[in-house]
Each structure stands twice: as structure tokens, then as C-alpha cells.
């Protein structure tokens, strides 16, 4: 990766360069201390060298910061696209069937609880995208800032839709289970009343 290569290059260059600059500075100081006839020239060259070295260090630092910022921005776009794809995939996995009887409806309800547990794991990723977008948007302007907001909004909107769909299905399954439980209770009661009626009708009638 370019960022890591430059970081290594910068570290090595700073280390080697500092040693060389220190050696030249020591030589210049020794010449000046010895009362060299070109003391003024030596001091001038020493100052120029140190200034050039400081400029180079600043350039490397600036370049390192630019590469780090670029890497962070690209990572944000990658994470946002990946999170969006996962959220959309979970949306597609949401079934429409609610069950044809109480047993299948209750089974669907258990499956949906597991599904909700799965999508809850995505909430941390969505929150991270939102936090990164808020932080990065402050550092950029214009088209890049707009692109950051578009990615964040796409993830947030898809996440809101997924949660809404999941909650809607949970309510639907709850209503379906309640309906089948009611129908079962009605059926059991009707069967019981039929049984009572048969007992009454089966008894010997008074003369």
C-alpha cells in the first residue's frame, strides 16, 4: 500500500538524513570553534543546510498526512458500500409468508427473532459509517463532502427501511399467531360445546 510504503520511506529517510545532518553540523561547529578563516561562510552554509533539512521534513510530513487522509477517505467509501450491500441483502432475505396455521406461524416467529438478532449485528457497522461520515465531512468541502454525505445517506436510508420492514413483519407475525390461537380456542370451545350437547341429547328423556 502506498501509504505504508511512504511511511517506511519517510522513517528511513528521516533517520539516515538526521544522522548526516548532525555529522555535517558537528563538522561545521568544529571548524568554527577552531577559528577557521571562512567561519562566516561555514556558518552560512550550516544555516542553509538546516533550513533545507527542516523544509524536507515538513514536506515529508505533509505528504504523509495527505496519504493518510486519502487512505481514510477511500476506506470510508469502501466500508459504506460494503455496509449498504449487507443491509440490502438482509432486506432481500425478509420473507413474506406468515404461515398457514398456528404451528407454522410460531415457527416463522422464531425464525424472525433469529433474523432480527442477525440484523442487529449490522447496527454497529451502520453507526460507524455515520460517525466516520460526520467526522470526514468536516475535513472536506465541495464534491468530496457531497459524496461522503451521499454514501452516508444511502446507508442510513437502507438501514431505516430494513428496520421498518423487520418491525412490520414482527407485528404481522404477532397478529397472525394471535389470530390462529384465537381460532384454535374457538374451535376447541365449539368441540367442547358439541360434546356437551351430545351428552345432553344422549341422556334418557324424562317420561
Automatic annotation (TrEMBL):
It comes from the Eukaryota. Signal peptide: none annotated. SUPFAM superfamilies: Spectrin repeat. Residues 105-139 form a coiled coil. Keywords: Actin-binding, Coiled coil, Repeat. The keyword Nucleotide-binding does not apply. GO terms for molecular function: actin binding. This is SPTN2 protein. The keyword Transmembrane does not apply.
